[in-house]
Specification:
With about 120 residues, this protein is mainly alpha-helical. The chain is built from 4 helices and no strands.
């Protein structure tokens, strides 16, 4: 389950990067025509790029990790990405959140040593 959570977070981060690129495109297009609030949309796009890259990184780490830290970092990154990345990025950050939960709770149980 931990490896599946890492893969899901990795895929969500890749799609989130494309969504952040689309947000940056719309913000740049709005800035070119002088639309009000275009800077805000561009800043949301950069936030989406940052947190999508972090989700990709933490998803790759979570696939082979033996601790819960990468799962926690995926969850935090997906929440911040949903807040600071814009609507398109938030859609994929929900998927990354699910991957983070799987990576967090999907650790195999250690066998109990009996003597």
């Amino acid at each position: 389950m931990q490896k599946a959570g890492g893969i899901i977070a990795l895929i969500a981060g890749i799609f989130g990067t494309f969504a952040a690129g689309a947000t940056l495109f719309v913000g740049g297009l709005g800035g070119a025509v002088g639309a009000e609030g275009a800077d805000t949309v561009s800043n949301l796009g950069w936030g989406g790029v940052l947190f999508s890259f972090l989700t990709i990184t933490f998803g790759a780490v979570a696939m082979g990790a033996q601790s819960k830290k990468p799962g926690i970092l995926i969850i935090v990154s997906s929440i911040l990405g949903a807040i600071l990345g814009g609507t398109l990025v938030a859609i994929f950050m929900v998927l990354a959140f699910i991957g983070g939960v799987l990576a967090l709770f999907g650790l195999p149980k250690e066998p109990v040593a009996t003597a």
